[in-house]
Amino acid sequence: MKGRDNKPHIGIFGRRNTGKSSLINLLTGQNTAIVSDFAGTTTDPVKKSVEIIDVGPAIIVDTAGIDDFGDLGKLRIEKTRQVIPVIDMAILVLSANKYGEYEDSLIEEFNKFDIPYIIVHNKADEEKANDSLATDVKNKTGKEIFNFSTLQPDKLSELVDLIRTAIPENAYNKVGLFKGLVKPKDIVLLVTPIDSSAPEGRMILPQVMAWRDALDNDCICMSVKETELEDFFKLGIKPALVVTDSQAFGFVSKIVPEDIMLTGFSVIFSRLKSNFDECLKGTPYIDKLENGDKVLILESCTHHVTCDDIGRFKIPNWIKKHTGKEISFEAVSGLSEIKEDIHSYKMVIQCGGCMVTRKQLTSRLKPFIDAGIPVSNYGMAIAYLNGIFDRVTKIFKTAEV
Questions:
Q1: How far apart are CA 359 and CA 267, in angstroms?
Q2: Which CATH code, of 3.40.50.11410, 3.30.300.130, 1.10.10.10, 2.40.50.140, is assigned to 275-385?
């Protein structure tokens, strides 16, 4: 599953033939998923957009049955489990009063990644959840079972209410890139270098999102390339905040006066999308890297790799130069599975994450944080390597959030 949608993700899980696909079709109002009386119809996860009242647009993800079997079934189950870390909430679907180790294993995974969930007993027109099952589930999970039937959808509004209640508010109510950092009428200057990796004729997503967020905060937003930055300051305009592409930190920090707040797009995105405090704490570990250490570079999107690539070439080269150590680097793009033992990495550096949800990014870093492995992000790491780490993070320490 590719995490390209910046919307809450809702995963539907359960055994084969519990009516998961029928449920997703009812929720979306479309024949999104193939429905069949034969178990095991769903193979790879299926995604579809839906509008939820008081939440807005969301992504529903249908998954294969957790009780599949055979070599192909094992692959389907693996795909299903890979969905769990990147969703914002889960719907566990039961039917025919069946509950056991399959459901327990899913709930264990939900809890591992802090995924809120609801339990729906589907096909209630045929058989409702009995008192014994309801009591057992309540004792195990603290959850009530919601009886439902896709053939008798009169309780659909109640189900939607349960979903809306379960989705974490921060999955759809965004903090905002500049919230607490600027005031209405402040001038925000965006320094946007144009290099070989920039899309022709367009701004990259972080720059566009920053523009929009500055306007949403009633700021006066201006933009220049780094090559015109000195000319800008000759105009006598004093911005409240300068935000630059992290790659230009070294150049830009020498031009922007010390009494003007300076930070980077990637640093701002770290507060919005990621484990900001953990990145603050983990970044200085760069100075503790030793010969033979391995650093993992995590990219949230896939893209054409060039010699100007920041994650695969520039940051590794800058770290080697800074530390004077022989360090190896490994890059993983998108939300691909990390196949190496995470303990083989001494440090993890994550991109800004503009292409994924907050949950997807925090879940991506959680195993490393839990294992005590230092984490950072592109902007903070580059600022540290340029000796301006305190300067570019100062504004966040005084932010009114």
A1: 17
A2: 3.40.50.11410
